[in-house]
């Protein structure tokens, strides 16, 4: 059984949001803190072994990418220098990850990064406001190891301005919803992305509502009601995706 750590790549610039994201990944995946290496890509580079030489991927059991205030589909002229640098780094990393079919799971922002890298159409057609949505597994999703144990339909937390509008032919659609047809997909055998947040619980969503209430995800006057929803919604299933990822690739 491997004891290699997983690598979490965070692109959140707010310290509180970044710290809570790490907490969410740890608690909902079941990983011990010592088995999750974290890189805040907006503030620091990837480890040299990963960024400069693909064999460095072998130091990790898998890679996870969290959510982000960045939108892959924004025009380049509207992107900050930090966002452009983050996207260039992730694109180079995904070159190696895709070539080796290396275990990868992107949550929310992972849809934009992995989807764009693999030729998906990512735009604002299917953005969803902050809250809950009902996700339904496809026939392929019912058979996938990362969704093992999930019911066909389950509730998840969402909140995103962009989403995949069309997947390329080599993608496998695993889940969708009425408002956002692409909620989870796979490339190859080991590259995954979810539009919903498997790393997010009610406390985490409430914190993000407070931090990003003026960021255009929802009308600011709705923050109080959304916070109430975050604390009362029953969302027990999405974290199983993380636990399955860890069990499959990390033992």
Reconstruct the topology from this structure.
Blueprint: E1 6-10, H1 15-29, E2 36-40, H2 48-52, E3 62-65, H3 81-100, E4 104-107, H4 109-117, E5 121-123, E6 128-137, H5 139-143, E7 153-160, E8 163-166, E9 171-176, E10 184-187, E11 191-194, H6 202-211, H7 223-232, H8 239-250
Helix pairs in contact: 1-6, 6-7
Strand order of the largest sheet: 2-1-3-4-11-10-9-6-7
Q: Provide a count of the helices.
A: 8
Summed over residues and divided by their number, the pLDDT gives a mean of 94
Uncertain segments of ≥5 residues (pLDDT<50)? none
Shape, per Cα inertia axes: globular
SSE topology string:
EHEHEHEHEEHEEEEEHHH
Instruction: Look at the helices and sheets and give the structural class.
Output: alpha/beta
Gyration radius, in Å = 17 Å
Mind summarizing the main beta sheet? 9 strands, mixed
Our measurement of the CA-to-CA distance between the termini, rounded to an integer number of angstroms, reads: 6 Å
Q: What is the percentage of strand-forming residues?
A: 15-25%
Topology, number of strands: 11
Q: Share of helix among residues?
A: 25-40%
In words, what does this structure look like?
By secondary structure, this protein is α/β, with parallel strands linked by helices. 34% of the residues lie in helices and 23% in strands. It contains 8 helices and 11 strands. The chain has helices at 15-29, 48-52, 81-100, 109-117, 139-143, 202-211, 223-232, 239-250; strands at residues 6-10, 36-40, 62-65, 104-107, 121-123, 128-137, 153-160, 163-166, 171-176, 184-187, 191-194. The chain has a 9-stranded mixed β-sheet, with helices on both faces. Strands 5-8 form a two-stranded antiparallel ribbon. The longest helix has 20 residues, at 81-100. The mean pLDDT is 94.
């Amino acid at each position: 059984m491997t004891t290699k750590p997983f690598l979490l790549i965070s692109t959140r610039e707010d310290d509180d949001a970044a710290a809570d994201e790490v907490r969410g990944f740890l608690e909902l995946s079941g990983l011990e803190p010592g088995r999750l290496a974290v890189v805040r890509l907006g503030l620091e580079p990837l480890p040299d072994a990963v960024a400069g030489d693909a064999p460095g991927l072998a130091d990790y059991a898998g890679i996870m990418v969290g959510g982000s205030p960045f939108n892959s589909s924004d025009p380049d002229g509207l992107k900050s220098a930090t966002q452009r640098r983050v996207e260039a780094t992730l694109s180079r990393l995904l070159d190696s990850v895709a070539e080796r079919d290396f275990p990868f799971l992107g949550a929310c922002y992972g849809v934009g990064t992995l989807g764009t890298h693999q030729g998906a159409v990512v735009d604002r057609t299917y953005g969803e406001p902050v809250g809950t949505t009902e996700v339904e597994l496809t026939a392929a999703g019912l058979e996938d190891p990362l969704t093992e144990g999930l019911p066909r339909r389950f509730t998840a937390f969402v909140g995103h301005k962009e989403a995949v509008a069309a997947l390329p032919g080599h993608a496998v659609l695993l889940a969708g919803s009425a408002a956002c047809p692409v909620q989870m997909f796979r490339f190859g055998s080991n590259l995954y992305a979810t539009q919903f947040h498997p790393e997010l619980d009610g406390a985490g969503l409430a914190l993000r509502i407070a931090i990003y209430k003026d960021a255009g995800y929802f009308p600011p006057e709705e923050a109080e009601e959304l916070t109430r929803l975050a604390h009362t919604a029953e969302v027990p299933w999405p974290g199983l995706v993380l636990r399955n990822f860890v069990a499959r690739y990390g033992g």
